[in-house]
Amino acid sequence: MRNIAPKLQTGRPLAAGSCRGAGLRRGLAALALFAAGAAQADGDGWMQRFVDPQDGRLDLSEWLLDHKGFLPVPIVITEPAVGYGAGLALVFFSESLRDAASQSKAGRITPPDVYGVAGATTENGSGGYGAGGQWSFLNDRFRYRGALAHMRLNLDFYGLGGQLPGPIQRIGYTLSGLASLQQPMMRLGDSDTLLGVRWTWLDIDASLDIDTGDSGLTPRQRARRSSGLGVVLEHDTRDNIFTPNRGLLAAAEANFYAQAIGSDNDFQAYRAHVFDYLELHKGSALGLRADGRLARGDVPFYMMPFVDLRGIPAARFQNENVVVLEAELRHAFDERWAGVVFGGVGSAWGLRKSFSDADKPVAGGVGFRYLLARRLGLWGGMDFAWSTVDRAFYVQVGSAWR
Q1: CA nearest 157: which of 145, 142, 172?
Q2: pTM (2 decimals)?
């Protein structure tokens, strides 16, 4: 059977995320033990579902291709901004990936309808719970994605432009409230391009650990309610949505928040990014990422763009303009194992700092990958990242770029 992953544009891979170093090894070991126990109780049928007939090694292709119904997915977190944490997602697949492949049209896979609920918490008191799903209609000509969540995030604010009044270097704050994202999309003809509209709604209380006057933030920069309508354009020619080897993902979006549709402030947020993948040889690829974000108007401080790189805490560098450049090289040592080297640089400028004066944090690291599902082209492993401000490690299932 051919690789059914090409052009299955389901967004973030279901099991993608970050976790403690032992998380992946423990998960694979538990899966292997479970499969071995099932094989003893039920013959060789179960065990064969976790073994690749080509090389006799652990492989999840058959299990993932045929799975339908509820699937529990562990969530383990190591984001430096919130600390270590864990949670659980319960996801329901209306049909298996193999069934979805049978409905393909013009070489394009119709993704199965997926629904789910999830909850997680971290050691610094951050956490949340929510529900969401994705549906496709008329042979994937139309899609709908939606999610509703309640969150509580304990973060640090370093000032817009990296500057706070007086000797203060950072301020702790808590975001608590509801967030909703609703996004219908339509395919343009039989192309690889999707056009959509988006409604984002937030009702968030921002509580700082010090008096408002000491933070340098105005009341409008701490606005509670944000409601915005946006336009999204996405072009995807990747050969695989999980771990691409070649192809391009290019997307642009513009979101407009206004009092006329329920927002406390009027402001705009824009993003454009390109992920380009070049196949060097089988199992090895070079990925190039360019990512730019802008914000204009009375933007709440917690919605300002920030530099997003492995090894840099979320929201550490915020401002009106943000740009990130990153490269990642994956080199296969054999058909199952590969090494990863990555590095990038970012900058945030606009308020209080020009581009030339702004910090330009650098981050990079190394990692390894194992081919978890050959027929899906799904690789997973661990990344170790260092930056000019921090360090962290992550478990990756599929691509690290979102």
Answers
A1: 172
A2: 0.83
